[in-house]
Amino acid sequence: MPWLWAAAAHAPGPRRPAPAGAAAEPWREPAAGSAALRGAGRGAAAAAAMSAWRGSRCGSLCLGGRAAARRSALLRQRAGTGTGTGTGPCSGNGGGVRAGAGGFRPSRVAVVAKTTRYEFEQQRYRYAGLSEDDLRQLLALKGSNYAGLLERHRIHTKNVEHVVDSLRNERIEVRLVKRREYNEETVRWADAVISAGGDGTMLLAASKVFDKFKPVIGVNTDPERSEGHLCLPVRYTHSFPEALQKLYRGEFRWQWRQRIRLYLEGTGINPVPVDLHEQQLSQEQHSRAHINERFQDQRSDISGPHLLPVRALNEVFIGESLSSRENFKSCKPSFKFSLHRASYYEISVDDGPWEKQKSSGLNVCTGTGSKAWSYNINKVANQAVEEILNIAKKHGSLNTPLNTELIQKVTNDYNDSLLYSPEEPKMFFSIREPIVNRVFSSSRQRGFSSKVCVRSRCWDACMVVDGGTSFEFNDGAIASILIDTEDALCTVLLEE
Amino acid sequence: MPWLWAAAAHAPGPRRPAPAGAAAEPWREPAAGSAALRGAGRGAAAAAAMSAWRGSRCGSLCLGGRAAARRSALLRQRAGTGTGTGTGPCSGNGGGVRAGAGGFRPSRVAVVAKTTRYEFEQQRYRYAGLSEDDLRQLLALKGSNYAGLLERHRIHTKNVEHVVDSLRNERIEVRLVKRREYNEETVRWADAVISAGGDGTMLLAASKVFDKFKPVIGVNTDPERSEGHLCLPVRYTHSFPEALQKLYRGEFRWQWRQRIRLYLEGTGINPVPVDLHEQQLSQEQHSRAHINERFQDQRSDISGPHLLPVRALNEVFIGESLSSRENFKSCKPSFKFSLHRASYYEISVDDGPWEKQKSSGLNVCTGTGSKAWSYNINKVANQAVEEILNIAKKHGSLNTPLNTELIQKVTNDYNDSLLYSPEEPKMFFSIREPIVNRVFSSSRQRGFSSKVCVRSRCWDACMVVDGGTSFEFNDGAIASILIDTEDALCTVLLEE
C-alpha cells in the first residue's frame, strides 16, 4: 500500500498512539463472541459510524480520495440493504459489487493458491540443477513418499480448479495467482480474495488487504491433512457452488477479525518491511545494504512514530533474528554464540512502567492468534497440572484425591482461559521462555492488554508479523503495538 | 577432531547405540549431586576403570595411539597420587603436567577470550566501511551508551590480562586466543583450557575438548553483568592467583559434567558439522553446495550410524532452521510462510514406540543444561500456578485458602524438580510448544530419559549443539541422542 505507507511516513502522527477500540464501531457488538452471529440492524448504525469515522479519522490516517469514495459507496449500499443479515461490503474499485438484498455478489475474485510441498521440493532441486527424475530418486532415498507428495499436490490442484470453475460458472471474473505473484494491484482489482490452501495461505492473502470492506475467504484445499482454522468448513472445499449460493442469498455472517497495528519510532529504525518470501540477498549484501541505509537514516532527521504498512491477523513476534522466523539477517558469525537465543528489551503494558526483560522473544496476539502460536506458548499439559496439584497435595492443601477427571478439567479450564474471540479488540502478550535472574524482572509474563510498547535492547532483532513480514528492531527502536478497530479484516462465516 | 571423525565415519558402529551409563565409571558417585564434593580414594578405582575401559571401548571408538598413551600416563599418575582429593588429569600431549600430591599443575594453558559487544559493534561497522568515529556517533544515535560498552570491554580486557599474568607469573606457558582462532591444535597443545568470558565462551571452549582428562575452567570476566553458572565463583576473577594456589594444593574438586553424544543415520543425512561462527557462504551458495553434496552422498553407499564429532554440554536442539538458532540455512523464500515455525518429527524415548510430533522443536539437555534453556522452556510462573490452583479450588478440591506463600512453595517445588546434577548420566527432553491436534499425539511432552531417538520429517531443519554447531536434519535422517559417561567434561570446583 504505497499511498498508506507514504502517508504514514510523512505524517508526524501522535507520539503515543491512542489506545485500541477508541474509534466508534457500533456494528461490532460488545459481546464479541456472538457478534458474528448477529448482523441485523447494522446498516443505519454503520452509516452513522462511517460518517463519524470520516470526520474524526480521515486526517490522522490520511486516506486518499479513493478510500473516501469507498466509504460513501458503502453508506449508499448499507442504506439500501437495510437490515439484511449479510450486508455486503462495497468494492475496492468504486462499486463493482452486485449486492442483492443482504447478499454478496463479487464480480472480480482473486484466488491465491499455496505452494505445495511437491512444488517446493521441485523448486529446490531444480534450483540445484537436478531433473524431475533426480527429484523422484532423491525423495525416495530420503524416505519421503514421492507418490504421496504428488497425490497431495494433485488433490490441492483439483480443489483449486473446483473453486475457480465454480466462480467462472457464475460469470465471476477470476485471477488465479501463486502466492509469489500476489500483490497490491491484484488486491485493488478484486472485490474479494479467496485463499486456496491452509491457514498459512490465508494469512498471506489477508496480509495485503487493508480495506475493511474487502472480504478475504479461506478454502482449505487439503482438508485431510491441515486444520484450516481460518478457512470455511471443509465440506465447502468439495461443494464450493453451495458456498457461493449462500453468499448470494445472504445465508452467512460477516466476521470482522481484529488486527494489530504497529508504530515504530526512535533511532536506528528502518521502517521498510522485508518480505520473508522474496528476500534474495546474501547475508553479506544484506548486511551492507541495511547498515549503510540505517546509517543514512540516522544522519537525517529522525521522524516518528511510523505507522507500519502491515496489520497482524495472528500475532507480532519480537526477538533476536536467531530465535525468530527470519533467517537471512545480517549477523557476524563470530557473534552468534554470544547472542545465543536471548532477546533483551524493555516492555510497558497499557502505559505502565518500563520493565527490563530477557527472553526467547515476545509474542503479542489477537483473538484470532490466541488459538495459534500464543496458545502453544502458554497452554499447560495434563502432566504439568498433575505435578502441580500433587505438590499442592503434598503441602496439605488438596482435600479430594487426584483423579484424571479433575486433572483434565483443570487443564481444560486453564487452557480455555487463553482463548478469546477474534472480534474482541484486545491483545494477549506472552513473554516467551522468560529468563529470570537478579537483573531481569519476574513480574507479569502474560496477560490481556490494549497496548504494548517495547523498547529494543537487541543487537540483531526483528519484529515479525504473522511469520511473513519482518522489520529490523534493534537497540534504540521503540514499537507501539495496539489494536485499532479500523484495521479489522472482513471474513465470512458459513455454518458447518 | 579429524581422527575421531574419520573413525566414526568408517566404523560400522551399532545400529542402536548402547544406553547411557553402560561404561563403568566408579569414580562418579551414584549420588551425583554430592559426588563432586568427594574425591577421596578415586585413584585405584580409576585405574581399574581405565584398564577395563581400554579393553572394552578402544575398538568401538577407535582411539588412536596418542589416546592410549594418554590413558597409561593417567594410570601411572593416578597410582602415584593415590587418594589426593584433587587427582590431576594427565596432559593431552604426553605428560607435560607437573602434578604434586593431589594437586594440579598445568604447564601449558590456552586462554579463550570472548568477543565483547564493543568489539562486535566495531566489527559490524568496520565491515560496512565506517570509521571508529562513525561507530561512536552511531551508537550514541542508537541510544546505546558508547562509553558504557567501552567500559565493559575494558573491564573484560583487564580481567583477561589478570588471568594471563597470573599464569605467566607461575611460569606457565600461555596461549591467548580469540574464540575465532581457537582450534583443535590449540586444544592438543594445552594441558588445560581457561575460558575468559561468560557461559557462552565456556560452552565454546568445552566444545572442542574431547579428552575427559583435560580440564576446562571458566573465568567470568564480567561478573557484574553476566551470571556465569559454568564459571568459577566471581571472587576468583579478581584474585586468580589464589585459584591457582588452590589448584596446586589440591584444594578443589574435579567435576565431570556429563555430555550428550549424537549418532546420525538414515538417508539424506550430512554428518558434516557447520560451525555457526565461521559460516560465510551466502544462502544461495550454501544451498547449492549442500544439496549437491547430499545428492552425491545419497547416490553413494549410505553408512551409519555416524558418531558426530561434537558433544553437547548444555543441550541439543532439533527444529526447522527458522525456529532454531541457525540463520543461514537454505530455504526457498517462497516457502518460509508455509514452514511457519512448526517442526515435524517422530520421537522414541528409551526405545519406546515412535510417536508423531509437531512443535517448535525438541530440546534434549544434560544436568548442566537443566539450568539453562530447558529450564526456561519448562518452568511455570507464579501466575500460572495461582490460576491453576484457583481453578482446582473452583472445582472444590482445595481446602486451604490460597495464599502467596503456598503459591510460591508450589511454584518453587515444581521448578526445582526440573533441575538435576551435571554429573548424573541422564537427559531431560522437552517437546517445545507442542501442537496438539487430531494428527499429532499429546502424550508425554517432557521427562528424563537415557536415550532419545528422533526421525526427522522436517524440510529444512537442523540439529544445533549448545547453540554453536549445527547439522542438517531433514526428512529421512534419524538421530540417536544419548549420554556416554566417557564423554564427560572435566571441570574444576572451587569453594565460594
Automatic annotation (TrEMBL), chains A, B:
Compartment list: Mitochondrion
One Gene Ontology biological process: NADP+ biosynthetic process
Subcellular location, principal: mitochondrion
Keyword set includes Nucleotide-binding: yes
GO CC list: mitochondrial matrix
UniProt keyword terms in alphabetical order: Acetylation, ATP-binding, Kinase, Mitochondrion, NAD, NADP, Nucleotide-binding, Phosphoprotein, Transferase, Transit peptide
EC number: 2.7.1.23
Subunit structure: Homodimer.
Enzyme class: transferase
GO MF annotation list: ATP binding; NAD+ kinase activity
InterPro entries: ATP-NAD_kinase_N (IPR017438), ATP-NAD_kinase_PpnK-typ_C (IPR017437), NAD/diacylglycerol_kinase_sf (IPR016064), NADK (IPR002504)
Organism, scientific name: Cairina moschata (Muscovy duck)
Family to which this protein belongs: Belongs to the NAD kinase family.
Catalytic activity: NAD(+) + ATP = ADP + NADP(+) + H(+)
UniProt name for this protein: NAD kinase 2, mitochondrial
Region (Disordered): 6-30
Tagged with keyword ATP-binding: yes
Superkingdom of origin: Eukaryota
